[in-house]
Structures are given as C-alpha cells and as structure tokens.
Amino acid sequence: MNAGWQFGLALSCWLLASPAAGMATLYSDATLTYWSRITPQDIRRVHHESLLPALEAEERAQLAGVELTFPLRCPVPASEPFCYYQQTLVDGRRQVVMSVASLRLFGDLALSMAWLQLEGLSIETPGQYLAMLRHRGSESFPEGRYPPPMEALGVPDEVRERTEVMELYGKIFTSSVVFVLLHELGHALHRHPGYGPEVSREAARRHEAEADDFALDVMARLAYPPLGMSVFFTLLAHWEPNRWHFADEAAYRAHLAEATHPLTSDRLRGLASTLAGHSDAFARAEPDFVAARERVLGVAEEIGRLAGFMDDRDIQEGIVRLGRATDPAVLQPRRAGEPVIDRATPDGVQPFEGTFRGKLGDVSGELPVRLVLERQGSRVQGVFTYGLGLGHLEGEVQAGRLHFGWTLGLEQGLGVLEVTAGDGRLHGSWGRERSTDDGGYWELWREEAH
C-alpha cells in the first residue's frame, strides 16, 4: 500500500459509512419538485416515442403494463444517489423506479463534466466529489449538509446559457439515462427477481449481463451512440463498494448478496466487449461514420480500463482515502497538472514560511507533498496536499521547532518540523491522534519562485 493511503486509519478499520441521511439534504424538496416537472416528462417522452417503437412485438407484449415511476427521493434511501431499479409489487404491478434526486445529481455532475471538458480543465473533480459524498458524513460539513455539486465544483451559474456546453451535456445525460432505463426494462423483460440471499452471486452476474445486453441491443437498433456511458460508470466506480472496501471476502459477499446492481470488473469487461463488437451499428446513422465509430470504440476502451481500475487494490484503497480526505476547496476548477494549492504570496523568508515541496513518508513508502505555510510571529498556519485531498496545519514555533496539529478530512494528528542547518530545508515527523511521530516523516525544501 502506498504511504499516503496509510495517512490515518488502516484498511482493516475502514467501515462503509452510510451517507443516506446526508444525501437527503443535498437537494431541497422545492428543487426536486421543480425538476420532477421536467426530467421525468423528458424520460417518458423518450420511452414512448423512441424506445417502445424499437422493441420487437414480443418484447412490447412482455413489457406491457410496466410503469415508470419517479419519486422525489428513493424509497430505499441507501440506494441514493444511484436509485434505479425494477420491482414487482404485491398486486403484481411491475415498476421501474428512478428517483428525481439521483437523476438530478447525475445531471449536475454530467453538466459539470461537460463544462470542465470544454474549458480544458481537469475532469477528475466530479468523481472526487462523489467519493467525498460516499466516504464523509454530512455532519463533517458546515451546517451538517453536503455542499451542492455545482457550487462545490465551481461551475458558473450561467453555464446553462452556453449552447456547446448544453449540447455535450445532453449527449452525456441522455445516453446514460437511456441505457439505465433500458437496463431496468431488461430486468423486467427477463422477470429477474430482486437481489438478496436467495439469489446466488452467479445468478446476479447473469442477470446484470442479460439486462446490459438488452439495453445495448436496443440502443444499437436505434443507432443511439452510447457516448455518456463511460462518464456514468466512472462516477459509479467512485461510489460503488468493491472487494477492497471490506475487511474480508465474507463481508464482501454479504454486500453482494444485498446489492441490487453489483458493479464488478467482469460486468465492465462485458460492456466494453459488447460496445466494441457493435460499434458499426451505433455509428451507422452519424454523418461521419468513421469518426463516430472511433468515438464508440473510445467509450468501450474507457469502460475496459475501468475494469482494471476495479481490480486494482491500490487504486480502490486510494479512492476511499481520497473521499475521506477531500475538502471542497480542492474541487475548484483547475487545469490538469495544476497545483491544488497556490503558492504563498509573498513568498516568506522566515523559517516555517513560504512554499515547500518534498516527501511525505511512512514505513511502506513515500509520496510527493506540497506545503504552503504562512507565519505571523510565532504562529503558523498552512495547507498541504499529496494527491489525496487538502490537509490543514496549525501550530507554533518554539525553540526553533514548529509544533503543529494537522487535519485531513476526517483524520487528525500532531507533528514537529525543524530547519536543517545550512540549507534551510525542513524535516520532521507526523503522527496520528495524540502522537507526533507514530505515522512517518516529512522532508521538504523551499519551492523556487517562477
């Protein structure tokens, strides 16, 4: 495991926090009521005018009577923010459930992704925002509620007035929602039961594959480019628990027994293979067939990479660390490779003041870290990042040493830094909770101004 991912709680102590209560405060009832008059109607129109005519007669007969229902919030709160499922009621009626809250969050993240991409900014922050929701309780934020996505991601209010942004957003959102809706209809078509202890892991995988195949088959009939699917599954991968979130295989299997839509690397590989195999069908209605086919193959490649992402223990452990450590300040727009934190201005000349780069390490290894310190008298405040969120530091200089406390998301501890004689570098230790040195070490040097 990389050093930075041990900065605080060990893997064996991780518990999957339930963010359900916090998710309920992400959007007000008034906001959801407003969108309930728009988004569900758009989805119903696509369902009736585009999807149903593409079904074969037998498929239409088997799906006759399936209701589309859009509650403001999910009847199963723990399913937010991916509340999409099919169910059979006690009276025999079959429903596809899609909560307005889940649709709204995905819509906001899709819009943010479109704007960031067209502005040439890093598109990693929407996934990081979702990881923050997953792994930090709402009580750790001001007023006990999560910051709204558009605000947290720094998307300007007037973004909906930009034609090119809204066009890209429409492609991402609509193609993703069409896939999800068809997937749920696929479950209804095949009469799949809900998942639970009586449904084996093998059956659950087969059901997901059958529903995916149906969705992609209908989209291929319609020559409906699946351009938003890689965005949807990238976001889902930042939320969905996987093997590395659990202490042992038994705990993971218990999760799968209750999961309605288990996201596995096998499922992602199957999706990627089907997309690539049907790329001609998806692209056939586009004016530039060759370019369209390449775009579909690109989506398939991205989803295939996600399968490796789901199997990589370091990446998955890092997502948990990222979510626990993320502060809204690190979600603001920036270009790829741009520092998350600005230099100290003006750059200090006193010890323990200015901008520093270096290494943050422990017994398992080390990661590059950037530290910005501001000093007033003996008091020092600062921020640091090593790629997993934004940490805060505050302390006092005593007898030539900086004694400080640090916080990083939900984690905290103490530490000590001192100046290396001769070259002005900083070195020291950090610890967890009440310790100053049981975590690891810092080695830092002053960053040159440009």
> Cα-atom Rg, whole angstroms?
24 Å
Helical residues, percent: 40-55%
What is the element string, with H for helices and E for strands? HHHHEEEHHHHHHHHHHHEEEEEEEE
Number of helices: 15
The CA-CA distance between the termini, in Å, is: 34 Å
Gross morphology is elongated
Biggest sheet character: 8 strands, antiparallel, barrel
Strand content: 15-25%
Q: How many separate structural domains?
A: 2
Q: Give the number of DSSP strands.
A: 11
* Helix/strand/pairing category: alpha+beta
The spatial strand order of the largest sheet comes to 4-5-6-7-8-9-10-11
Query: Mean pLDDT, nearest integer?
Result: 86
Low-confidence regions: 1-17
Task: Put the structure in a nutshell.
The protein is α+β, with helices and mostly antiparallel strands and 450 residues long. The chain is built from 15 helices and eleven strands.
Description:
- The chain is of the alpha+beta class and 450 residues long.
- 43% of the residues lie in helices and 18% in strands.
- The chain has two domains: 3-331, no CATH class; 354-446, Lipocalin (Beta Barrel).
- The chain contains 15 helices and eleven strands.
- An eight-stranded antiparallel barrel has the order 4-5-6-7-8-9-10-11. A three-stranded mixed beta sheet has the order 1-3-2.
Which structural traits does this protein have?
450 residues, alpha+beta, Lipocalin, 2 domains, eight-stranded antiparallel barrel, 43% helix, 18% strand, disordered N terminus, signal, Peptidase M48 domain-containing protein
